[in-house]
Amino acid sequence: MGVYCGVDWAEGHHDIALVDDEGRLVGKRRIVESLDGLAELTAMLAAAGDSAAEPIPVAIETPRGLLVAALRATGRPIYPINPLAVARYRERTSVSGKKSDHVDAMALANILRTDAHLHRMLPDDTSLARSITVLARAYQDAVWRRTKTVQELRARLREYYPGFLAAFAAGTGSGGGLSTTRLASRDARAVLAIAPSPAEGLRLSTARVEKALRRAGRQRRIAAVAGQVVAALRVPQLRQDPVVEHAMRIEALALLAVLDAVCASIEDLENALVAAFAEHPDHEIITSFPGLADVSGAIVLAEIGDDRSRFADDRALQAFAGSAPVTRASGKSRTVTRRRTKNNRLASIGYSWAFTASARPSPAREHYLRRRDRGDGHPAALRHLFNRMLGQLFHCLQTGQPYDPVKAYPHSTTITGAPATTVAA
Question: In sequence order, which residues have a C-beta less than 8 Å from that of residue 110 and are 6 or more positions away?
Answer without folding.
Answer: 4, 6, 19, 23, 89
